[in-house]
Specification:
Layout lengths: L4 H19 L4 E7 L3 H17 L2 E7 L5 H13 L5 E4 L9 H7 L11 H9 L8 H12 L8 E5 L6 H9 L6 E5 L6 H6 L3 E4 L17 E4 L3 E3 L2 E3 L4 H4 L5 E2 L6 H21 L1
Parallel strand pairs: 1-2, 1-3, 4-5, 4-6, 6-7, 7-10
Antiparallel strand pairs: 8-9
The structure holds NADP nicotinamide-adenine-dinucleotide phosphate (NAP).
The site of NADP nicotinamide-adenine-dinucleotide phosphate has 24 residues, from α10.
């Protein structure tokens, strides 16, 4: 059975819009976008449309790829100091000559809507819910919750250990309240098939088209596909959806699974930043 991430995300967006309208909130999100990077342009365009739909004001600062790290940090400092801006998103990746960590450190943690600043990562580790949690892992946890998929005591195998998906997700799912036993797998892991076959829930975020095969999945497992890959121009996930759905009890399609949840969580985090800054 498909997990309808698109539908769940739509109902979250509706609730956000209602809260903004009912309470007369005026959240504003500032994007920093490298103008020559086509995929970033597409992602920011999608995020901006979602903002508009729920009543979040968005501002885009487009940057030449030749911008210096110093100049970008100066612009971020200005956004930090601007009381009209509640949330800041620097669309990654940045050009090679810029140290993205230094740029993330420059964002005011209270406006760090992606939840990538070390202060927010630290707060997430200790379970301080005043932090912005990274959007994709937060979206996956929310999706599991909304679909009534139990995580307590379950074996969850996560493929991919990036700071935007796998690592924070492993922390969230193994925290008190979620209570899963998490195995975090990466490119140096041995016996991947063994770990995957043992999992009640598989979450894949490696960016390898159709990598997870039916034979690797336990009968009745839940499969969550974060991957976005292209085969002959067609968007596909990391999981071999067509075949894996024969053994999985529930599975997210690509597109229409995790992606819309990531955007819904961005909107949710923006409103959260706005409310905290206004309080
Ligand atoms: P990333 O930073 O490139 O990390 C990929 C991770 O996968 C790394 O930890 C890598 O291991 C691991 N890996 C690669 N090949 C592997 C293999 N054969 N076996 C086991 N592990 C392997 O990627 P990312 O930014 O996390 O993104 C991952 C995928 O998710 C991409 O397709 C991306 O487009 C997608 N994504 C989607 C959303 C969404 O909202 N739908 C959001 C974020 C990302 P090492 O650490 O050992 O190199």
């Amino acid at each position: 059975m498909d997990i309808n991430g698109k539908g769940v995300a739509a109902s979250i967006r509706q609730a956000i819009k209602k809260e903004i309208d009912d309470k007369g909130l005026t959240p504003t999100l500032a994007f920093f976008l490298i103008e020559d990077h086509a995929p970033s342009k597409v992602y920011v365009g999608m995020k901006q449309r979602a903002c508009k739909e729920v009543g979040i004001t968005s501002i885009i600062e487009t940057l030449q790829a030749s911008i210096t790290e110093e100049m970008l940090i100066t612009k971020i400092s200005a956004a930090n100091a601007n009381p009209e801006i509640d949330a800041i998103l620097v669309q990654m990746p940045l050009p090679d000559h810029i140290d993205s960590n230094r740029v993330i450190y420059a964002i005011d943690p209270a406006k760090d809507v992606d939840g990538f600043h070390p202060v927010n990562i630290g707060k997430m580790l200790i379970g301080d819910s005043s932090a912005s949690f990274p959007c994709t892992p937060l979206g996956i946890c929310t999706l599991l919750e909304k679909e009534n998929i139990e995580t307590a005591g379950k074996n969850i195998a996560i493929l991919g250990r990036s700071m935007i998906v796998g690592r924070p997700l492993a922390n969230m799912l193994s925290s008190k309240g979620k209570d899963a036993t998490v195995t975090l797998l990466h490119s140096k892991s041995k016996n991947l098939s063994f770990h995957l076959k043992n999992a009640d829930i598989i979450i894949s975020a490696i960016g390898k088209a159709l990598f997870v095969k039916k034979e690797m999945v336990k009968q009745g497992a839940v499969c969550i596909d974060v991957g976005t890959n292209h085969i002959d121009g067609v968007l596909v996930g990391d999981i071999d959806y067509k075949n894996v759905k024969e053994v999985a009890s529930k599975i997210t399609p690509v597109p229409g699974g995790v992606g819309p949840m990531t955007i819904a969580m961005l909107l949710q985090n923006t409103v959260k930043c706005h409310k905290i800054l206004a309080s």
